[in-house]
Amino acid sequence: xxxxxxxxxxxxxxxxxxxxxxxxxxxxxxxxxxxxxxxxxxxxxxxxxxxxxxxxxxxxxxxxxxxxxxxxxxxxxxxxxxxxxxxxxxxxx
Length: 93
Known about the structure:
The structure is a single chain. The protein is mainly alpha-helical. The protein has two domains: 1-50, Arc Repressor Mutant, subunit A, CATH 1.10.10.10; 52-93. It contains three helices and two strands; from the N terminus they run ααββα. It has helices spanning 10-14, 21-33, 52-92, and strands at residues 37-39, 48-50. It has a two-stranded antiparallel sheet with strand order 1-2.
């Protein structure tokens, strides 16, 4: 991602993606409202900058959610194995 290397303007980003300027601007507004990027003013430009601390917080949260889901899937796998075994035993009777 271009912003990972430093600040970038909307026109910088339009050149990197096959998206229109309004589309890029719309995405940047969402990121800005989530405080994942910030914008400064340099003459007529409004360069964007990643807010790494906020991104780290999101990454940390996602890792916690991933651990929860992995635990849920492991328990579900164990339950399915139990049910499958019980089904096999029921068929033998």
